[in-house]
Amino acid sequence: MKIYGVAILAACYFAGLVLGEMLGGLFGVKGNLGGVGFGMLFFILLTDWMKKKNKMTEDYAAGILFWTSLYIPIVIAMASIQNVNAAVNSGAVAIVSGIVATFLSFVSIRFLISLLKEERGV
């Protein structure tokens, strides 16, 4: 059953959001600092702990595998939407820096691909 991984994932995500909000408040930022990342880290640590303690049954493993395949695209997409909203409301500097970072990523990927082609002799 796929439902087995939901409680573990939800608990880790919630704990990550709480920690991210606390860090945001600590640093004076009106937002969540790394909540999704902390949730993913908690999720990895908890599932690893369950495997080491032999508490990971086949049902849990199948459920966790199913939900981890959904967790990254859905939760990261939700977090990125919040970041875009914050950037648009923050002004031109945030928007320009996002555009520049995206452009540099595209250029660096093309550069890395060309290096790999040269290395392989293609």
Report on this model:
It is built from four helices and no strands. The protein has about 120 residues and is mainly α. It folds into two domains: about 5-90, no CATH class; about 90-120. The protein is flat. The N and C termini lie far apart (about 45 Å).
SSE order and pairing:
Layout: H1 4-26, H2 35-52, H3 58-90, H4 92-120
Helix pairs in contact: 1-2, 1-3
Structure in a nutshell:
The protein has 122 residues and is mostly helical. The protein has helices spanning 4-26, 35-52, 58-90, 92-120. The chain folds into 2 domains: 4-90, no CATH class; 91-122.
Low-confidence stretches: none
Helical residues, percent: over 70%
Q: Which structural class matches the secondary elements?
A: mainly alpha
**Shape assignment:** flat
The ordered string of helix (H) and strand (E) elements is HHHH
Query: Mind summarizing the main beta sheet?
Result: none
The total beta strand count reads 0
When the domains are counted, the total is 2
C-alpha Rg (nearest Å): 19 Å
Measure the end-to-end span.
Answer: 47 Å
* Residue share in β-strands: under 5%
Number of helices: 4
Mean pLDDT: 80
